[in-house]
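Researcher: Good morning. I'm working through a list of sequences from a screen, and I'd like to move beyond sequence-only analysis. For each chain I'm collecting a predicted structure so we can compare shapes side by side. This is the next one on the list. No need for commentary yet; just the structure.
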Amino acid sequence: MPDTLEGFEIVKREQPIEKQTDRLAIESMIFIMTSFDSGMHIVPPIPVQYSRSNDTTKYFVQTSPILIMVGGIAVDTTKDIKDIKPPLSVPITLADILPYIISIVGIGGIIWLVRYIIRKRKRGEPLIPEEPPRPANEVALEALRALESEKLWQRGKVKDYHSQITDIIRIYIERKYNISAMESTSDEILQSFTDVVIEEEAKDYLREILYRADLVKFAKFLPSAEENERSITLAFKFVEMTWKEQEQKTDAQLQEVKS
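Model: Good morning. Structure tokens for this chain:
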């Protein structure tokens, strides 16, 4: 069957229905058709092909034409013409407004980001906040442990060993006391502690570390194993003693504020 007949369009085709009798196999099918033109329409004859049992010959037969009268909708002309009904209002769902919400949030985020970047640049601040620096004592103690594990003086690198000890201590002093220790001589560093109050024992530790390293670097002094071990031991003690002294001062200041 074609999709259109004369004046009709086929809207739906239902599944064929088969019936078997003693002599015949009957197959039927229902078609739903529509037409938009009023008047008399004719469904033309439809050819049907069939065959007989044990016979290869193809036979054809046609259905009879069908007359169908299509009528229009009855209209009462005595009444006034009315406007077309307005479209039905459909309730708004979350799926309808979700794209607008996402757009508003996205635009708001872009505006906030632009203002954040402009504000940071005006202040000369980095866009991404930097992590707070680690305490000077933690950095120094970690570096001393790493140096101790390298066993430099045991491998004959005595000069490198003492140079690294003094570099670690100098960096610690710069960060803790704001003294330019990396660019100062040993005597200048010790002189700087005239205005900085630390325990005399800690100052003695620092003096011994610096002077022994100067002898190794400039006088080609070869320390004993005990002296090599003592330098790094005193370095540990100097960092721990001076940092503990600062913590005690901070606790005392807090107690004064509370009282």
